[in-house]
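Take a careful look at the protein record below. Let me know whether the structure tokens fit the sequence:
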Amino acid sequence: MKRHCPCKRPNGGACRAKPTAGSEFCFFHDPGLAADRLAAQQAGGRRHKAASLPADTADCDLKNVGDVIALLGMTINQVRRGQIDPRVSNAVGYLAAILLKGFEIGNLDRRVSDIEMVTRNQPQSDLLLDKEEFCFIQEAPDDRPEAAHAH
């Protein structure tokens, strides 16, 4: 029995794995172990799959800030119980932040529209302020001695 598998690796180099018992090939190159390799690959894929909720889990209504806060609270608890993978919760948190920013922009847009509507319906003279409504402070001229020392 050889000390190393006689096969070549994908990069062209020699396989350095030790042969399995009763074979000249390693586990990865032994033609008789193809079914075992496939089973091992599938098991590894299932074992490392990110925990997520079942596909039939009901959608969350995310129509306002309170709904998003409730979703984040549920997600935190699901991570703590091991129901979902922290990577999934990171995606939920990231998307929730985008949604909250959208709510913020939408709210600001509505407020600007409301202000525009109110000002559009007001006569121009009502929108202007008289000088008497302001208290003006006279600034010192630049040629005063204390202004010269400030530079």
Observations:
- Residues 65-124 form one domain.
